[in-house]
């Protein structure tokens, strides 16, 4: 999947692979893993910690390869060899996609490639791992979890048998949830033996296994009350010294959802599905296309009008115009779908022209006019150049005077990404690029999200100035059982009145909400800058991929994406994790003495490190720890530089369980500012010692 813009998938990252030789299928042995998930409403911060062992006869270098989800943003990657921690940083360098042992691609790459997917994260570990030695790799990321009709899903691909059949000594999943809406249920659907505690607005799920192979993906589902809908927001305020641009010190994200009950009227659709049946669709793809079309036809609403357009060298349609969804028309359409066969060339312009022209026969303006278009190739019949097709579509839309929303899907690697991106952007739709075997699942899932429109031509307004950089732009339509997630910046804290406006059944409709924008740094909302930056980067990439990459406009957009990626720690097509050049000098022995490796399966510690906010920081940061039980009167923190030298000692008194902040002003014990770089915080509470990496940017 080269690019996914504006759509959410339910795939999350899976277990990483320590690749020694990709062609020879030589991997490090995964012998322990732990997944810690902290969820605020529907925003998950996931920490995946894995321990690998080198079972080869020699010391070796390796590449850490991870099946990267499109809708997740990495926060950090770090690894420990010989009790020394190293840390990667986002740099303006495209990811190196070469794996160790490659020599033109061998048979061994097939299962690995299938496991890693289309957009893996690849990171070269530059320290040698000795024979029978272990390395611990910790990857942390933030993700907006997929939501439908009150159900939220967290999935972690944990099916590892394509890489390793050996059992894993210890595996653990911990899922902590805090929600502004009441939590009705939390369940681990994939594994038996989990423990769940549900307190209404907080919940915790845990699972442990030992000496078991990784044969099943983790899947957690929680259900939120459908009686508590509206707008739920998060906000945080950066000190002026930490702001890296001029858009405002505040960051906010809100989630809006219309009433999904039977009392909510659904706007009738006029719907056209355009199916590519050219020769390249032969086999699995055309089978999946027919199955997706069957599903859509069977799930239309009473009152909808629909049609099917299919194309190769020639273009044809199920009916000459949209027909009502009735049992008779449904059965006739299903019979028509069975006759679709793949052959011939690719006449994209003819298919779009026919489909749009049929909207001219509509009367009135009280319907949601939608086109879902998918193709696996490039135009080679009719009008074949990108600009020519775009001009033809614009002309046809103007003639019909009924602007349909066009959603485009590209399948495989031989599609015109620029054309599909611009078709969607110019017609208020979304674009998604799929793997060859994803057509049915992704099209049907997407259709369920747009099945029941309730607010069209959506816009947003605020009761004061200083609210800027709102994404996505333009806003999508609102659909029953779905959510609108909006991020932005602000320069003045305090109450903010928000108005969402649009139309339904030809009449204007608006919803009013109030969001109180924070005037302080809220540690648990440290993910907001990344959510905002990720949404802005997605928007910029839409524009970038619609241009000639050599043009000055494209270069300017590329530079802006790079700046955002580096400043906010976002992996993009132009930025990646780099680094790890610390050499583990002997001066680091003090760290080795104090750091206790967290072995999966041990008794859970009396506290956990929640992270530090902000990270990276310039002048001040807060290290946040969550005390589970009292074992000492104070929490002690010792901060070391990358050479293992102690630079600062901190203490904070604790009187009871809960979250406690430890502030560091970026100074040494002598009162001098530390320089830019990575620092290791050793946090001690009672008999428990944990570590955390902090980045300083001057």
Write the layout of secondary structure elements.
Elements: E1 4-5, E2 17-21, E3 26-27, E4 29-40, E5 43-53, E6 60-66, E7 72-81, E8 84-91, H1 109-116, E9 121-129, E10 134-144, E11 147-148, E12 151-156, E13 168-178, E14 183-188, E15 195-198, E16 202-212, E17 218-224, E18 230-237, E19 250-257, E20 269-276, H2 284-298, E21 305-311, E22 315-317, E23 323-324, H3 327-338, H4 348-357, E24 368-375, H5 386-400, E25 405-411, H6 417-426, E26 431-434, H7 439-450, E27 453-462, E28 467-471, E29 478-479, E30 484-490, E31 494-504, E32 507-517, H8 528-544, H9 552-568, E33 576-579, H10 589-594, E34 607-613, E35 621-627, E36 634-640, E37 646-653, E38 658-664, E39 677-685, E40 688-696
Parallel strand pairs: 4-13, 20-21, 20-24, 24-25, 25-26
Antiparallel strand pairs: 1-26, 2-3, 2-6, 4-5, 5-10, 6-9, 7-8, 7-10, 8-33, 11-12, 12-17, 13-16, 14-17, 15-16, 18-19, 19-30, 21-22, 21-23, 27-29, 27-31, 28-30, 31-32, 34-35, 35-38, 36-37, 36-39, 39-40
Taking all Cα atoms into account, the compactness measure Rg is 27 Å
CATH class of the largest domain: Mainly Beta
Question: Strand content of the residues, in percent?
Answer: 35-45%
Poorly predicted spans: 1-13, 583-604
Largest sheet: 9 strands, mixed
- With strands numbered from the N-terminus, the spatial order across the biggest sheet is 15-16-13-4-5-10-7-8-33
Cα-to-Cα separation, first versus last residue: 37 Å
The chain-level structural class is: alpha+beta
What is the helix content?
10-25%
Total number of β-strand segments? 40
- The figure for the number of domains is 4
Instruction: Write down the CATH topology of the largest domain.
Output: Immunoglobulin-like
Q: What is the overall silhouette?
A: globular
CATH architecture annotation of the largest domain = Sandwich
Number of helices: 10
Mean pLDDT: 82
């Amino acid at each position: 999947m080269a690019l996914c813009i504006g759509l959410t998938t339910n795939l999350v990252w899976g277990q990483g692979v320590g690749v020694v030789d990709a062609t020879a299928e030589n991997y490090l042995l995964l012998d322990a893993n732990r997944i810690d998930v902290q969820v605020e409403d529907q925003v998950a911060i996931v920490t995946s910690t894995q321990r690998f062992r080198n079972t080869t006869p020699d010391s070796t270098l390796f590449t850490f390869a991870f099946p990267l989800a499109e809708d997740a943003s990495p926060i950090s990657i770090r690894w420990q060899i010989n009790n020394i921690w190293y840390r990667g940083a986002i740099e303006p360098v495209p990811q190196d996609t070469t794996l160790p042992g490659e020599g033109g691609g061998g048979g061994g790459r097939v299962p690995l490639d299938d496991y890693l997917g289309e957009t893996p994260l690849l990171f070269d570990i530059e320290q040698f791992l000795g024979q029978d030695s272990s390395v611990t790799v910790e990857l942390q990321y933030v993700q907006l979890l997929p939501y439908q009709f009150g159900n939220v899903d967290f999935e972690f691909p944990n099916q590892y048998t394509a890489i390793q059949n050996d059992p894993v000594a210890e595996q653990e999943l911990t899922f902590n949830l805090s929600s502004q809406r009441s939590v009705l249920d939390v369940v681990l659907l994939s594994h038996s033996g989990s423990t769940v505690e549900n307190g209404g607005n907080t919940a915790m799920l845990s699972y442990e296994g030992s000496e078991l192979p990784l044969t099943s993906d983790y899947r957690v589902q929680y259900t939120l009350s459908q009686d508590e809908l509206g707008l739920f927001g998060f906000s945080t305020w950066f000190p002026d010294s930490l702001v890296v641009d001029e858009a405002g010190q505040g960051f906010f994200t809100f989630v809006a959802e219309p009433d999904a009950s039977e009392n909510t009227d659904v706007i009738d659709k006029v719907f056209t599905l355009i199916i590519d049946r050219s020769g390249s669709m032969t086999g699995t793809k055309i089978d999946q296309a027919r199955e997706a079309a069957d599903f859509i036809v069977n799930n239309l609403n009473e009152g909808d009008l629909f049609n099917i357009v299919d194309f190769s060298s020639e273009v044809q349609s199920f009916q000459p115009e949209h027909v009502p969804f009735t049992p008779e028309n449904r059965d006739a359409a299903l019979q028509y779908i069975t006759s679709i066969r793949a052959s011939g060339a690719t006449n994209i312009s003819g298919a779009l022209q026919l489909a749009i022209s049929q909207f001219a026969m509509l009367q009135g303006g009280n319907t949601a006019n939608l086109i879902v278009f998918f193709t696996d190739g490039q135009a080679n019949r009719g009008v074949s150049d990108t600009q020519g097709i775009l001009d033809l579509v614009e002309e046809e839309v103007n003639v019909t005077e009924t602007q349909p929303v066009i959603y485009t899907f590209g399948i495989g690697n031989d599609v015109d990404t620029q054309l599909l991106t611009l078709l969607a952007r110019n017609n208020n739709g979304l674009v998604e690029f799929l793997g060859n075997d994803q057509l049915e699942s992704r099209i049907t899932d997407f259709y369920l999200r747009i099945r029941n429109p309730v607010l069209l031509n959506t816009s947003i307004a605020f009761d004061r100035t200083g609210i800027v950089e709102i994404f996505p732009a333009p806003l999508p339509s609102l659909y029953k059982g779905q959510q609108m997630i909006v991020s932005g910046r602000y320069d003045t804290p305090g109450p903010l009145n928000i108005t969402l406006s649009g139309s339904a059944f030809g009449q204007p409709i608006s919803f009013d909400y109030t969001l109180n924008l924070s005037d302080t740094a809220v540690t648990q909302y440290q993910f907001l800058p990344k959510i905002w930056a990720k949404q802005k980067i997605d928007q910029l990439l839409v524009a970038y991929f619609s241009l000639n990459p050599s043009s000055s406009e494209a270069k300017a957009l590329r530079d802006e994406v790079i700046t955002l990626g580096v400043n906010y720690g976002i992996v993009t097509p132009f930025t990646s994790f780099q680094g790890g050049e610390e050499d583990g000098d002997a001066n680091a022995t003090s760290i080795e003495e104090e750091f206790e490796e967290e072995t999966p399966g041990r008794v859970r510690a009396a506290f956990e490190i929640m992270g530090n906010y902000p990270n990276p920081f310039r002048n001040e940061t807060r290290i946040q720890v969550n005390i589970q039980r009292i074992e000492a009167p104070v929490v002690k923190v010792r901060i070391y530089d990358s050479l293992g030298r102690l630079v600062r000692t901190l203490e904070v008194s604790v009187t009871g369980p809960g979250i406690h902040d430890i502030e560091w002003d970026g100074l040494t014990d002598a009162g001098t500012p530390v320089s830019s770089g990575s620092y290791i915080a050793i946090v001690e509470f009672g008999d428990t010692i944990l570590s955390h990496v902090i980045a300083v940017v001057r």
